[in-house]
Specification:
Blueprint lengths: L1 E6 L4 E7 L3 E11 L5 E12 L5 E8 L2 H8 L16 H9 L6 H16 L4 H8 L4 H14 L7 H6 L6 H14 L4 H11 L4 H13 L2 H13 L9 H20 L4 H7 L5 H8 L2 H13 L4
Antiparallel strand pairs: 1-2, 2-3, 3-4, 4-5
């Protein structure tokens, strides 16, 4: 099986090609709310025959956090309509993977039950198994499962950190999301974050800038020293010098956002930075402003 992957911050697309006869495309779509911040997320799965290019089916799977939370709450609407709470985690994973099962609502609910269990810290060895798998497809699934469940347990910590070194940009980006969600920070994580700021995958780099712009002052100061010292940079000269320059520029963007500067003005002063970086950050300008006000009131939070 050949696996092809491409992503953009927010929406992304994964293409899995089987046997040279069938193409399965998984596309993530994320809408925005009235404040321009990310809202609903959905996945679109399409199967097509390569030779005749005939669409077999299109399935829309709503994977919003809101619905995951709703299913996890007692008395949630449509809770356990298929009696899946009695199934083992292995059984739920087998049900999801079974191509003979055509009921996509059933598979959707199976996913929600998985996410609820992992959020509660149950059967996390299955999630860890996906995250450390040598198989690309399974690690992609693991990264997606981690992004939807974000368990607080230490059991997944090491496996989640290893995503920072994954060959796939999507997996590296989920590492940043995990750090944002868990608020995890230590010397190991800090070096991985510094390396993420040098990343040539712009989506990984943008998520790191967002983290740096939103974290508290003490962590930002420590992180800044690591980046400026070249910590995490792994390439030899002369490529190392380019990475350090990009890292310093990303750090400056985060610093100026933290200081309350308007993102459009920062973009004007940094023509060397990809405009997509600022287009993305602009969507979160209101949220970053609220983080700034919170830091003033509670400096270490």
């Amino acid at each position: 099986m050949d696996v092809f992957f491409g992503a953009i911050a927010g929406p992304f697309q994964v293409v899995l090609r089987y046997d040279g006869t069938e193409v399965v495309t998984v596309s993530s779509l994320r809408s925005t709310n009235a404040n321009g911040e990310p809202g609903r997320r959905s996945f679109k799965i399409e199967k097509t025959k390569r030779r005749k290019v005939i669409k077999i089916k299109t399935v829309m799977i709503d994977t919003t956090k809101a619905r995951t939370t709703q299913m996890a709450e007692p008395g949630g609407k449509n809770q356990d309509r298929y009696g899946l709470s009695s199934h083992s985690t292995a059984s739920l994973l087998g049900l999801i993977k079974d191509e003979k099962i055509a009921d996509e609502d059933l598979k959707f609910d199976a996913h929600l039950h998985l996410f609820r269990r992992w959020q509660d810290g149950q059967d996390l060895d299955f999630l860890v198994g996906f995250l450390i798998s040598p198989t690309t497809e399974e690690r992609l699934r693991g990264a997606y499962y981690l992004s939807e469940s974000m368990p607080k347990s230490e059991v997944v910590r090491d496996a989640a950190i290893e995503l920072a070194d994954d060959p796939l940009g999507y997996c590296r980006r989920i590492f940043i999301e995990y750090v944002l969600s868990s608020k995890l920070y230590d010397d190991v994580v800090a070096v991985r974050l510094a390396n993420s700021l040098y990343d040539f995958d712009i989506h990984v780099r943008i998520e790191t800038i967002y983290w740096a712009a939103s974290t508290h002052d003490q962590r930002f100061d420590h992180f800044s020293k690591l980046v400026l010292s070249g910590a995490g940079a792994r390439k030899p000269e002369p490529w190392r010098a380019f990475d350090l320059k990009r890292g310093a520029r990303g750090l400056e963007i985060a610093r100026r956002i933290r200081d309350g500067e308007v993102i459009e003005k920062i973009a004007e002063d940094m023509p060397g930075e990809d405009s997509f970086t600022f287009d993305y950050l602009k969507n979160f300008e209101g949220r970053l402003s609220r983080y700034r006000e919170k830091r003033k009131a509670r400096p270490l939070h």
